[in-house]
Amino acid sequence: EVRLIQTGGGPVQAGGSMKLSCVVSEYPTTRYSMGWFRQAPGKRREGIAAADVDGETDVADSVSGRFSISLDTVANTVYLQMNDLKPEDSAMYYCAARTWLRLSFLEYEYEHWGQGTQVTVSS
To answer: Which SS3 state, helix, strand or coil, does residue 33 take?
Structure first.
């Protein structure tokens, strides 16, 4: 059974930094890509970063210049580094995995999901 276990998250002050981690286990293939999504109350889930095992990465315009994604293929762990956090970044953050190398920010294209972790940015 594929499992995605997230760590990190919690409260942080505006302007601060935080790093989220997501460990993938029992994935049936070494060829996969991963993404980070977030969902604020009353809003739809938003794809914000994606990476694949070949080293390709991308981040959404909404977080470009502040957030970055990295995928450690040895540790099977994807990270989301968040800098200069703003109150509007407060949301539940999810990692996700898909058996496809093309980067995607589309929720329905992901097959497996982490449990989610809350990030709350105070002003």
So the answer is: strand
